[in-house]
Amino acid sequence: MGLMDGKVILVAGVANKNSIAWGIAERLHQEGAEIAFSYAEPRLERRVRPLAEQVGARFVEICDVTQDEDIDRLFDRFKAAHGRLDGMVHSVAFAPREDLRCQFTQITREGFHLALDISAYSLLALTRRAVPLMSEGSAVLTMTYYAAEKVIPSYGVMSLAKAALECSVRYLAYELGPRNIRVNAISAGPIKTLAARGINNFSIVHSYARETAPLRHDITIESVGDTALWLMSSLSSSVTGEVVHVDGGYNVLGLTVPDSLGGEEVCPDPII
Ligand code: NAP
């Protein structure tokens, strides 16, 4: 018996085997879920189809989330193929590189619109079409980052998009709660993926998070997949509107001091 037996889950945002969405899809499939995939653009098909075959997916459809016609077609075809939906994973984000890397005051209007459209509005647009296919006990999950809560200088316009996304999670949870449809987010620590490559000095951010977070280890798509299983299954049946941190505990820190500034003395290793 798997935790997800008999459930059909739509996963948006697999670009390749390193994608967080793939870590989630694999974990849900291991527990018995039937996975359906949507991907952003034609060049991704040759990567997404073989992955979809690995988990026996029958439904793989292109959908650019900036296009309402694409979203309508996705759900029309999904309805024809599966008839109902038990959960949706939204793992989609984009911002123009220059609006990620520039000074905050230099973020352009166009970059702002595009980042918010793809990375935040798309959760509403997809959820609107998903809900009519969902029954009680269904779940929606999205992916966010700590830059929505605290200043992470390298994250530029995406910090604004993630703040809007997290706020959307709370309002969607409020609106869909009476139907017993839950909406949550995972705030993952840095993971080396395609999207992460756009972040300025990502490898420094990645190493810094690993070396300072209480658990001192890399965050993996497998560990995000485990938490996603909890949030997408009945194990979290009373949890909605939450942002769950899968970051090795990084978000509890109030002060980190690099060794070059005497970190070992200010923050001695707590393990005696
Ligand atoms: P990823 O593998 O590059 O996934 C991002 C996905 O978003 C890609 O499949 C991408 O497709 C898709 N996307 C972009 N524009 C789209 C559009 N217009 N329509 C449909 N899909 C579109 O990177 P990832 O790190 O797994 O990112 C997944 C989510 O996790 C994102 O929301 C990201 O912000 C979040 N997250 C990542 C980290 C991290 O450190 N990696 C940490 C916290 C949160 P294309 O490749 O075609 O652009």
Description:
It is a single chain. This protein has a seven-stranded parallel β-sheet with strand order 3-2-1-4-5-6-7, with helices on both faces. The chain has helices spanning 20-30, 45-54, 68-82, 97-101, 109-130, 156-176, 202-212, 221-232, 263-266, and strands at 8-12, 34-39, 60-62, 85-90, 134-144, 182-188, 243-246. With 272 residues, it is α/β, with parallel strands linked by helices. The model has no long low-confidence stretch (mean pLDDT 95). It has a single domain (8-248), classed as Rossmann fold. Strand 2 (34-39), helix 2 and strand 3 form a beta-alpha-beta unit. Helix 1 packs across helix 8 and helix 5 runs parallel beside helix 6. The protein has nine helices and seven strands, in the order βαβαβαβααβαβααβα. The longest helix has 22 residues, at 109-130. The chain is globular, with a radius of gyration of 19 Å.
> Assembly state here?
single chain
Q: What is the typical, i.e. mean, pLDDT?
A: 95
Strands in their spatial order, largest beta sheet:
3-2-1-4-5-6-7
Amount of beta strand: 15-25%
Q: Which structural class is indicated by helix and strand composition?
A: alpha/beta
- Number of individual domains: 1
The CATH topology label is: Rossmann fold
Ligand types? NADP nicotinamide-adenine-dinucleotide phosphate
CATH class: Alpha Beta
Describe the largest sheet: 7 strands, parallel
CATH homologous superfamily designation: NAD(P)-binding Rossmann-like Domain
Inertia-based shape: globular
How many strands appear in the DSSP assignment?
A: 7
Percentage of residues in helical conformation: 40-55%
Topology as a string of helices (H) and strands (E): EHEHEHEHHEHEHHEH
CATH architecture: 3-Layer(aba) Sandwich
Distance between the termini: 43 Å
| Low-confidence blocks of residues | none
Radius of gyration: 19 Å
**Individual helix count:** 9
